Amino acid sequence: MKNYLLIPILLLTVFSGCKKDKNSSEEIKKESLSGFVQKGPFINGTSISVSELNTDLSQTGKVYNTQIVDNKGSFSFKNVELVSNFVSLRADGFYFNEISGEQSKSQITLYAISDVSDRSTININILSHLEKSRVEFLMSEGLDFKEAKKKAQSEILNIFSLEEDLAKESESLDIAKKGNDNGVLLAISLIFQGYRTEGELTELLAN
Questions:
Q1: pTM for this prediction
Q2: pLDDT higher than 60, residue 80
Q3: Do 113 and 87 touch, CB atoms closer than 8 A?
Q4: Which of 2, 146, 163, 203 has CA atoms 20 to 30 A from the CA of 188?
């Protein structure tokens, strides 16, 4: 009789353990999370932060900070540990104005939002900045992250009468490299800059 009573107890224990494992978060560890910040390139000393996001893209409170280490806009975070695969990056600094050929006279802020499940490189640029708020809105409307990213990028390109979708996500683009997708980023960066001051550029990006 005692053996019969033990069987349901053991089964409950097993199922309870399985349920716990299924719902538990798997930690993501990155030895390095690196990239470039480009308007033109942001300059040495620019502050960069990466914030962990929940599945609804709200901040968890975990933040890592670093700085750009050269005038090419390159940065790197070391030993990043996350329990979510979504992150938001922010860059605040001066940059090389590709129209005037001079360093900007004041700082601007650019953002990027990304899924780091299968990537260790995230670039911050005009396209990544423009799509961030739209991705957040589209996800609040029920789209998943990948769908929201693709739709947001397509909508931005349509503003510039570019109907063909890019093969790469915005955070994979680099104005210093060859290729059609990178050329699109460079063109949009130049259009936004024009002969605007940093204040005028910031207002345009916000609007």
A1: 0.86
A2: yes
A3: yes
A4: 146
